[in-house]
Amino acid sequence: MASNALVGIVANPASALDIRRLVADGSAVTTNHKINVLRRVLAGLAGVGVERVLSMTDLGDSSGGIESLSRGPAGARWPKLDFVEHPITQSAVDTTAAVKAMAESEVDAIVVLGGDGTNKVVAAECGDIPLASISTGTNNAFPSSIEPTVVGMATALVATGRVSREDATHRCKAMTVSTGDHCTRGLVDVAIIDDDKPGSGAVWDAANIVELFLCFAETQAIGLSSIGAHVQPVGRNDPFGLHIRIGSPRVVRVRVPLAPGLLSDVDIAEVNQLDAGVAVKSIATSGVVAVDGERSFRIAADDPATVTLSRDGPFAIDVAKTMDIASRSGVLKDLPTINPT
Amino acid sequence: MNQFNRLDSYKEMVRIRQYESRILQEYHADKQPAWDIGAGLIPGEMHLAAGQEPAAVGVCAHLKKGDAITAPHRPHHFALAHGVDMKAMTAEIYGRDSGLCRGKGGHMHLFDPENHFSCSGIIAQGYPVACGQAFAFKRRSTDNVAVAVAGEGAANQGAFHEALNLAALWSLPVIFVIEDNDWAISVPKSHSTATASNADRAAGYGIPGVRVENNDVEAIFEAAGAAVDRARAGEGPSLIEIHTLRLWGHFEGDAQAYRGAELETVDERDPIPRYAKSLVDLGELTEDQIVTIAAAADAEVDAAIQFAVSSPEPKPQDALLHVFA
Predict the structure, then answer these.
(1) CB contact under 8 A, A201 and B212
(2) Confidence (pTM)
(3) Comparing C-alpha atoms, which of B267, B290, B271 is closest to residue B280?
(4) Chain B closest CA to A221's CA: distance in Å?
(5) CATH number of A6-172+314-329
(6) Which of B196, B202, B212 comes nearest A28 by C-beta?
(7) Tens digits of per-residue pLDDT, B153-179?
(8) CATH 3.30.70.1350 at B6-308, yes or no
(9) Least CB-CB distance to B227: which of A22, A62, A91?
(10) Is the dihedral of CA B251, B254, B259, B265 positive or negative?
């Protein structure tokens, strides 16, 4: 079972702490819960032959907790755990620095704990390293809610080459959005928000949203992409996305889950298919651009946001498919005993 | 939720900053010898809140007459933002008879019954007190709320947990505010606290807990507004941890050797110049206004200090008046 596979781990300590616990029923994903998720991932990785893991560092939070545990009895069952060295700012900059370092260390796959925002930051730096994303955020369309132990196993199957990358992953769509000096990429949604109201990062009030660009729109999802899903569902593998104008005159009103426990009625004024490779300018000429659910920057004067859908996003590990292939090919059968006596 | 006013919020933050800056100056002006905290015109320890203005302004913008605040040992920003009279507060800090407590409390014991404002040097002490105030509001069927403010180190005190438990059990209209300025005197959170965010701890009591990053007055306003709305509507307590910045020492005279390289970046993290710049970029503030707003604040502070220093000290024969313990 032993291999030289190296797996990176990114855990966003700040996920699931924003205002959506007050204005909606967003659940608390505590640091200790995140550490518990990490433990399950590490067990899954170790059980399928990954012996080395490279984790990002945060300020005594999840990485500190797992580092401390790795020196105890649990650590004996885990892969050897090393931490990426990078300056710690307690912001998304840390994730960027950590993923860059992981890419330089040539990790075979990265497990990401966070929401859409965390995955967006990882995707910007990971190149073609496959990602296995576990939801520990509030509104998650991109990462899955699959049991972390199994995510660890699937990641190990890909990292060790027991299931081929070609079979195990699919290439995600992405969107590039630019205005003025700003340019960034998103994985799920780009929203234009009415800028009169000040506020925090999260987007939760339907009344503020004036325009929406979506990579995909799945009906089981929560958050901004659910608006598109209830107009016209778009799958992750469809070669197009959606461009929606919200407001009046409305052509239809949809009732959507914008945040946990928060249903909102949203007036749809116009819906267009967003084709890959075509630069589309926002109809709105002012406002704030929110990327993957987080307010990012203002639309520059005289330069509406330009959004381009592409099919060159990150490679995502399809956990269910990977485990299915493993089962059919028997790679997890008749393995050496885990705890030889 | 109240409407946010960017310019008013900026003015209030500047008012607090000019106040703290001037108290800093006055405190050290005649402190001879420097190690004798009893010496000089301002006796006693001094904990100033420069850098933490966004927390006070963002939260207090939602409070109305009758709402209560219990503040900790670093209280000036919440006192001023909550409407405590600057002159009476300054006289108290100077130990004068015209002060809020007739000069017997000092800067850590500012009691203003009219505005339901109090503070204490005992860590986390304000948390249970806020529960009592909230219980009274609930019994009287008012929609008033109580705000309890403490630092992140205080969240390791028993009183913090007892208060959260009681407030959750009785669904009291309390907003628990933790100002996380990264330092409990000289102890970083990672050396004292078993979880990354005290917002996590709310989950143990079944109440909402949020953390607001970046010391951003607008984000604080939004979160506090949601928490105050919940409390007024009878939906019970909430906890907001605000990641803020202690611009200066724990107390005046603190050399802060323990802060290391982090201390080198405090000025670039100062929330007031940063907010001024964003308002200038938005076209809602001019360079001229930056100067006139600071000057207006200075004038008010000058008048308060003049009032304090020209007020008499308490008479020795009054030492036992208004003292009950």
Answers:
(1) no
(2) 0.90
(3) B290
(4) 23
(5) 3.40.1280
(6) B202
(7) 999 999 999 999 999 999 999 999 999
(8) no
(9) A22
(10) positive
